[in-house]
Amino acid sequence: MSGSAKRQTIMAIGGHVGDMELTCGGVLATRALEGDAVVTVALTAGEKGNPPGMVVEEYREQKVDEAKGFAERIGAEAIVFDYRDGLLPANDESAFMLCDVIRKHRPSVLITHWKESIHQDHVAAHEIVHKAQFYAALSGFERELPAHFAAGPYYAENWEDPFEFTPTVYHRVSDEGFELWREAIALHWFTMNSTSFEYREYYTHLMSVRGIEARTRYAQAFDVPPMNRRRTVDSF
Question: What's the CATH architecture for 9-233?
């Protein structure tokens, strides 16, 4: 962000701790380094991917700490809701909880999951974000804090949300942002130790591929409504 540009707040909302850190973490790190405020919101901790020998509730505590550690490392803030992994309800209760978070932090833009996924929490998160964006924007929904409109949502590219996802907006990831992300994402146990998927390496290489497509070194891709497609941005 240039010295004359207005400081923005980017809010990235995932179904689990680690979702947004992986899928748009390079962008979040880049924007934080450039002076923007960043808030990550995990609607569940994602605790049911617990390592061998660790009970679910213990892993939940670890995941919350990992979310906070990633956020602190890039200069952001992390929020984790109390909903249980795999049981995220896309209802008015969850939407109004997120509405209140949006009104409190007043983000410029929202990032979340694409609607088609193999994981039901990701599908629920997509729906919750859209509801919460609507509720937060309308003053007719009387809450403790005044109404606020956040642009988007932009849909982050996730290997679990691939169906009909089209990479249409490419956001540059700076070299410094990329290196900061590589350090911060290693704080998440599953990104380094999963035996089923090489998370950090996949998103590392994906950033290079999207960077080549965007004619830069690193980038992350997002889907958007059709009228906003086919453009490369340095800022949402």
Answer: 3-Layer(aba) Sandwich (3.40)
